[in-house]
Fold each of these.
Amino acid sequence: MCTAFLSHSPVLFLLERTRRAPIDRVRTHAADVAREHFPEFPVEAIDWEVSERAQRQAGVTEYDPASETVTIRLTWDAYREFGWQQFSKTVRHELVHAWQYWQFEEADHGETFARWTDRLDISQHCQRFTSPKWWLVCLECDGRVERYRRSKTVRNPEDYSCGDCGGNLRVEEGPGQ
């Protein structure tokens, strides 16, 4: 396959432009929110990325203490599934984490996060955007843990036990399978 030809393909250009469009909108939204709620926070310093692999989280904020850089990685499938109204809540959620890293060099869903939930119309935990492919179910306590990849635990549940009660596990197929 000739990659030189593909790199100039109108289809690939449109796909790349389409995938970049959410980041442009996200940057604008984040800047607007930061200007109103975090005026001292240098939101322009955030590195924004799009993940096409993530299945469990719509977004994640990472902090590198050595370089003091903050990266927010948003999930393309979540953007497609949620639409902008819901996805913008994910952006604001991750923006709070970015601010926490800038302010405290750590981030969590504790008190400092909770005080922003009403003001920014966000929840402490983001809504799931895809269904798990499997569930690990405890035979003792009926605890359930979702799995999105065919991990060792999914392939060999008999080799593992419930983290809560130590009971045996079984695997159920989820709607995402």
Amino acid sequence: MLGLKGATSFYACAWCKVHKDKRWDMNHEEDFYNKPPLQRTLKELKELSKKGRENFCCEHEPLLNIELDHVILDELHLLLRVVDVLLNNLLEDVLQWDKKDDLNKKRGEKKGVHRERLQAAIRSCGVSFDIWKKTNADGKGSGTYDFTSLLGNDKKQLLRELPGKILSVVQTSTSNTVKKIWEDFRELYTFIGSGQNSDKQITDFFEKAKSWVNLFISLRDKRKGYERARITPYIHAMVFHIPKFFRTHKSVKIFTGQGVEKNNDYARNIVLHKSNKWDAASD
């Protein structure tokens, strides 16, 4: 819609020109990315799209003439993307733990117990969830794992229930920090979904969001998945742009796309329960 390159590009943020290698840096004031020279504007997007180089990833002209302060981040997609990161990190945690423990196990002794414990903990939250080893095209194991893709309501359920179970499923030396990362994001997401808030509450949210990012990357030398590069455009926007949306529009909940996503969830649920997925109408 805005003519920008994808989420993995150097300048992926829709509202500012932060480089992806700088998204982890929380040593800035709230308006740092919301004013020139780093703030994006519709006029600038159009001008940069005509340049072949040094265009801050503006590949095409925007499809619609909408000023960027009227383009609001969807809180549901923020939840989906951030919980994906947190879930991936839990899986990496238990896989590292299993790899270390399984080296010393005797032949026939059960392996992968920490992975199974994580899977059971997630299922105990009332969410259907599986973890499996991915295979290559030749059918052999790839050495990597994947897990069930969860819908929005499932991820909300996990955010409510899973933090209380984390201490029993991840490595003990960092389990308290991992639990706090989940709990603090739950608090941030609850605020994002709330109604009108005072200036002080918005400022408090900004400071808590910065602290959350710093807590997240504090594990970068201890656990896989918490590197600075894992601070995604959504996480950056949560810290530096959602406060601006609150100050301008008082709430972001009114712009949510949850209604559309719920229709998608219903449609997906129907298709997955059909016996003939390629021609559902024939059922």
Amino acid sequence: MSVGWWAGLVGLVATLSAQPRTCTLVALGDVQLGRGTSRAIARHGAVGMWAGIDDLLADADLRVANLECPVTCVGRPVDKKYCFRADPSRAKAVLRAGGIDVVSLANNHTQDWGPRGLAETRRWLNAWGITTAGAGQGEVAAAGVRVRVVRGLRVGFVGYSEWVMQPAQPGPAHAHLARLNEATLAAEIAAAKARVDCLV
């Protein structure tokens, strides 16, 4: 009787371990927390900024967004028409209220307040436990895969920007961003996939 009980338990564990592992991921678009958005945050509160999708966010295992602004009190605005910047305290409240786990920084507003602003953005997000993809200390580091372990799954994230800074199209330089390079993209993705169960 005892032997049969253990055999049944071992069989159950083997069956459970053979089941496919899954997790639910919610992917958001641009999240811009500067300019007029700061007034909306003051008016509606951090939780209110997610009204209408709060249940969707709460049910997810991972929540991913494109953070379309630096989070900083340092640096200087670059020479371009639109420069966004989010107050760290407000950004922290909103991102935490939404349960945001991962953000891509590979976009044309990441360096609106220069390299110092980007560096501080990454420091804040890291301190809040938010994983950042698509930016780092140099292009090689920026392009590296970032990994979150959720429900036993290693989920990897990469981010790339194809925005090119030039006189007619001002935007961030690529010193700290992962640049989209079609010649090397396939190899970079293959290398990233080898490290994780799922790549985003």
